[in-house]
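Support reply, case 0932

Customer input (verbatim):
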Amino acid sequence: MDNKSKNWTKSTKQNSTTRLNFAGTTDKGCVRSVNQDSFYIDPEGRFLIVADGMGGHAGGQEASRIAAEAIKIYLVSHWQDTIESPQLLKNGFIQANKAIIDDQEKHPERSDMGTTAVVAIFREKQLWCANVGDSRLYRHRGKILKQITEDQTWVAQAVRSNSITPEQAITHPWRHVLSQCLGREDTDQVDLLPLDVQPGDRLLLCSDGLTGELSDSIIAPILSSNKDSFTIAEELVNTAKEKGGNDNITVLIVTVEI
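Our regenerated output:
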């Protein structure tokens, strides 16, 4: 569960006709001295987590690690409960938020740390995702790349309210200002969304180190490739680094195979 550069692949059977092929990689990028991202792929293929920390070197690393660990522990511990999947996800995020705040109280030097998080779960044919902050989940189907999650940022809210245009948002000085993150007493919005997937689809979970460098028009052709999930994840990271790599980059790929 550390956030050093690493690669991990996993393939697991979902049902009698479909396989989900997983791959994940993270990289500190070309500018940052440390990697404050964390990710986790459940060995049984039940869920995936991406977290992007902030708040200084030690703080950001700890916040993303704590969040990913807390969500993982909660999901594993309560996976067989009768609770519905959306509430299961929300509870995991609540536990992560509490764990970070508890750590802040024990370590005042990390009082400003926080983290984004995006999670996808595959449970009893119920596919759901949840996010806080601006780490994203996309679905690629055919030639169409669709962002499933909505960024919880100042500029995203401004675009939705038509205060600024999507073009203005790309270079807006407040584009990295989060409206929600884990590690705050006032965090009260966990976005919960059902996931619709079909054989041939690909899901992409990522930190903004990827989307800050690559537009959808660059990401989509890479996801369209018939290469395996691991190769695609590596290609996305390397392309983001070629474009500048100004932030840590984390990419998880799920390929729904026939």
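We compared this against your earlier run and they match. Two observations from our side: The two ends are 30 Å apart (CA to CA). The chain has a mean pLDDT of 89. Please reopen the case if you see a mismatch on your end.
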